[in-house]
Amino acid sequence: MAVALIHPGWVRTDMGGPQADISPADSAKGIMSVIDALTLESTGCFKKWNGEDHAW
Question: What is the pLDDT of residues 6-56, one digit of tens each?
Fold first, then answer.
């Protein structure tokens, strides 16, 4: 089983506000893509919702 941390991005929600960068649907689609791409070799990574590496 691969494990990762995924940052959802600045999402247009009550918390993120209307000026946030992405919609909840775009964030969710991106997160699902990151999850689908996980492998045992990439386990333990920290990714952004769009698949980019996120600095610790």
Answer: 999 999 999 999 999 999 999 999 999 999 999 999 999 999 999 999 998
Nearest-angstrom CA–CA distance, 34 and 20: 21
Domain range annotation of the chain: 4-48
**Which tokens belong to 55?**
């600095």
Cβ neighbours of residue 14 closer than 8 Å, sequence gap 6 or more: none
- pTM of this prediction? 0.90
DSSP string, 1-56: ---EEEE--SBSSTTT-TT-SB-HHHHHHHHHHHHHH--GGGTTEEEETTS-B---
